[in-house]
Design goal:
Helix content is 35%, strand content 23%. It contains 10 helices and 16 strands. Strands 5-6-7-8-9 form a 5-stranded antiparallel β-sheet. Strand 1 and strand 2 form a beta hairpin. Helix 5 crosses helix 6. The mean pLDDT is 89.
C-alpha cells in the first residue's frame, strides 16, 4: 500500500478515537529516527503507546521500538512532559495539526504548569513544545518563513487556513466555486476545500454530480447537494472503524466499494502502515514497469475502440454514399448564391438533418 500520510478528515477520526486518553499520565517519552513515542498510563486501561511521525501520521500502537540513547530533543521532552497529565487532545479546525494539552509540575518552578505538544502532520511535519502562552520551548526542527517562525522563545503561529470545511456555509461554498480557477470540481474539492482526492471523489458520488464540471460553471442547484454530501461525510466520523482497501485505509466505508477487511478502530488500521520504510530499488522498478504496462494497456484499449468506431463510421458512410454525395452537391450549388443562414433554413426540410452548425460551417446528418 502506498499510503504514507493522513488527510485532515482522517486525522479527525484519529483524534476522535484518542479522546479516552484524556487524564492519562505520560510515564515516558521516546524519540528515534523520526518517530516520537509517548508511553501513557490510562486509568482502567493500563499502558498505551501513542506513535507520532511528524508530517505522516499519529495513532495508537502496540510496538515499542526505541533508541537506547535519547537525543537532545528527546531529553528536553522528557524534562517537561514525563509525569505530566494529558488534559485534552484536539485538532485545530480542519488543519492537519494536533494539540496535546499537558499539565505538569516542573522541577524549576515547583508549581503546576500548562504545556502544549503541537504535532504538525502537513508537509514534512514538525513537533513543537510550547508553554501556556504558546511560546515555543523546543522544536524538532527550527524553521523560518515570511509570516511564521518556529524556534525557541518565538510565539507559535500556525499556518493560515484559507477554508475550514467543517464550518463552511452554502453561501461560502457558492462564492468559492465562482472564484475558483481549478480545471474541474473534484480538484476544487480536493485542494481548495482541503479534503484530498479520495474524499473529493466521495463527495461527488454522494452528491450525484459530474466531478469533471468546471467549478465556475457549476449551477446554483448543485451547491446544496455538494454541501449536504460534505456534511454527510463529516457525520460519518461519529462512528469510525478501519476500512482497509488495496490502496487506502478510510475511517468509514466508501460508497459502492467493498473493503478487503474492517478493523475495530481506525487507529488499529493506521498502525499497520510504515511510512518510514524505504522500498527497495527492485520494488520501485517493478512498480514503475507495472505502471508503464498499465498505461500501455489502456492506450491499446483506446486505440482498439477507436478502430472499431472508425470502421463503423466508414461503413455508414459507404452505405449512404450516394445520398451524402447528393447532399454535398446541393450544398455546393446553394453556396454559389446563398449565405449559410439561408442554406440552413433550406436544409431543415431534409428528414435526416440533425443540425446545421453555422459557426463551424457544418451540416450534421443522422445515418
Amino acid at each position: 500500500m502506498n499510503k504514507k500520510s493522513l488527510s485532515s478528515l482522517e486525522l479527525a477520526a484519529i483524534v476522535k478515537e484518542l479522546q479516552f486518553l484524556a487524564r492519562s499520565k505520560i510515564s515516558q517519552v521516546y524519540y528515534s529516527d523520526g518517530l516520537l513515542l509517548l508511553q501513557l498510563h490510562v486509568s482502567g486501561e493500563g499502558k498505551q503507546l501513542l506513535k507520532i511521525i511528524p508530517g505522516k501520521l499519529m495513532c495508537l500502537t502496540k510496538i515499542k521500538d526505541t533508541a537506547d540513547k535519547p537525543s537532545g530533543f528527546c531529553q528536553q521532552l522528557r524534562k517537561y512532559l514525563a509525569g505530566g497529565i494529558i488534559s485534552s487532545i484536539s485538532q485545530k479546525d480542519a488543519e492537519r495539526i494536533v494539540s496535546i494539552e499537558v499539565e505538569n509540575i516542573l522541577e524549576r518552578s515547583k508549581s503546576q504548569q500548562k504545556l502544549y505538544l503541537i504535532i504538525e502532520l502537513f508537509s514534512i511535519g514538525n513537533i513543537i513544545l510550547t508553554d501556556k502562552e504558546q511560546v515555543i520551548i523546543t522544536a524538532l526542527e527550527s524553521r523560518e518563513w515570511k509570516d511564521r517562525i518556529i524556534k525557541p522563545r518565538e510565539k507559535y503561529i500556525p499556518p493560515p487556513l484559507s477554508v475550514n470545511y467543517l464550518s463552511l456555509t452554502k453561501d461560502q461554498l457558492k462564492n468559492l466555486l465562482r472564484k475558483s480557477d481549478r480545471r474541474n470540481l473534484v480538484t476544487f474539492i480536493a485542494t481548495e476545500m482541503g479534503l484530498g482526492g479520495l474524499y473529493a471523489e466521495e463527495v461527488c458520488k454522494l452528491a450525484g454530480i459530474d466531478k469533471n464540471k468546471v467549478p465556475k460553471e457549476v449551477p446554483d442547484s448543485w451547491v446544496v447537494p455538494i454541501h449536504n454530501a460534505l456534511q454527510d461525510i463529516i457525520s460519518k466520523l461519529k462512528d469510525t472503524h478501519g476500512y482497509v482497501y488495496p490502496e487506502d485505509i478510510t475511517p468509514f466505508k466508501l460508497l459502492g466499494i467493498e473493503p478487503a477487511r474492517v478493523t475495530d478502530t481506525y487507529n488499529e488500521a493506521i498502525d499497520e502502515l510504515n511510512p518510514l520504510a524505504k522500498a527497495s530499488p527492485y520494488e520501485q522498478k517493478i512498480k514503475s514497469l507495472e505502471r508503464i504496462a498499465a498505461e500501455q494497456e489502456e492506450s491499446i484499449k483506446k486505440a482498439e475502440e477507436a478502430i472499431i468506431e472508425n470502421k463503423r463510421i466508414g461503413e455508414l458512410i459507404y452505405e449512404n454514399y450516394a445520398s451524402l454525395q447528393k447532399m454535398l452537391g446541393i450544398v455546393k450549388e446553394m453556396r454559389k448564391t446563398m449565405e449559410w443562414g439561408e442554406i440552413g433554413e433550406e436544409l431543415k426540410r431534409i428528414k435526416k438533418l440533425v443540425r446545421v452548425d453555422l459557426k463551424g460551417k457544418k451540416v450534421v446528418l443522422g445515418l
